[in-house]
Amino acid sequence: MWERERVSEKNVETLQYRFDGPEQAPVLVMGTSLGATWHMWDRQVPELAQQWRVLRFDLPGHGGAPAHPAGSVAELTARLLVTLDALGVQRFGYAGCALGGAVGVELALRHPDRLASLALIAASPRFGSADEFRRRGVIVRTNGLDPIARSSPDRWFTGGFAAAQPAITDWAVQMVRTTDPGCYIAACEALASFDVRAELGRVGVPTLVLVGSDDQVTGPAEARTLVAGIPDARLAVVPGASHLVPVEQPAAVTDLLVRHFSTAWQPAYDVSTGQTALPGMTGMVPMGAMPPRAPVVPPQPVAPVAEIAPAPAAPPGGSRADAYDAGLKVRREVLGDAHVDRELAQADAFSEDYQEFLTRYVWGDVWDRPGLDRRSRSCVALTALVAGGHLEQLAVHIRAALRTGLTPDEIKEVLLQAAVYCGVPVATDAFRIAQQVIREETTPRE
Questions:
Q1: Which positions ≥6 away from 281 have C-beta within 8 Å?
Q2: Single pTM value for the model
Q3: What contacts 134, CB < 8 A, 6 or more positions away?
Q4: Rounded CA Rg of the chain
Q5: What angle do CA 120, 126, 129 make, to 5 degrees?
Q6: What is the pLDDT of residues 354-391, one digit of tens each?
Q7: N or C end of the chain, less CB within 10 A?
């Protein structure tokens, strides 16, 4: 048994990692939840490291890792693969919790040749709504991580566990509080844009979907959606556990992971030789010579009951669909899903062409141009609305400005500038509207 910790301060593309277990054993990679560090797996590692070479990694800015933000799940996955490539690890099993689970799905979809087996813990094909994660980013940008840290035990643990384990509760709060805010915000953006509901059928690796029975963040319904969509998936529901189930029910999670990775490790296949490499073996053996697996009872399969969300409808109009799709994506990211859904739902035969015009030309052509970043475009939009007296649209764009990364202080400066050049009376109304919106958007909800 041995362990090692490494991190590169100079290379943005690599992740902070730690090894435990025999050097010649097959590699099992473990990914963490947003706000957590690799220590969330401490209770699983001693037993797992008896059979596997366990590699845990920290998300950027977590656990003292270099604060190089990654704004998408694809980027996080790419950094993990760069790290593994540098270590000479080509094929591995993977277990990931929450955001770490999203990385696991991304691996299975985009890099199936690297993955031998997969476990998704407290995961989902889409994590809530984009609006709620972008709003969380606004709260952190405005108030720092303290409000999120103080509320993390409520999201991560059942009430009884949090009350009975004050030391673990304090550990959870401090773990979030010491995370780099910029990296946390970027990770929120990564979760906001993650949606693989339509792609689950392409996950071709044996998958264990594990969830706590009392998880209010990504609960059994989300787990069943994963099982319904992934062809070779089994569901295990751990009673008496919430979102951070490896911490709350460590023995049950360890047992389930050992069973899954012992029985569902897909061997690498060499097309040129027609042979299969077994985990932990340096050579190749013919398919017919593979030793039989030990008769281990797998996690009890549960019939999926959740429906898979339908594929997105085709955009209106038959021409320039790419511009419409790009515009709808930008419109949602800037204005929020709730606002866009409301606007599109209210469209009828009279106004639907106008909604298409807005999406295609305003958001697909102008807002998606590379000449200005979104923060700059928000500054221009706020100034123009004040100058034109279009205050009925100001609240929407104040919320949009917070999503694009402007802080309340920066919005204040924009409105002060507008007061000088557009007039005090209209700026007075603009400040009143902005004050109310900022109070609503930056106050943490209990």
A1: none
A2: 0.73
A3: 188, 189, 192, 333, 336, 403
A4: 24
A5: 140
A6: 999 999 999 988 998 888 888 899 999 999 999 999 99
A7: C
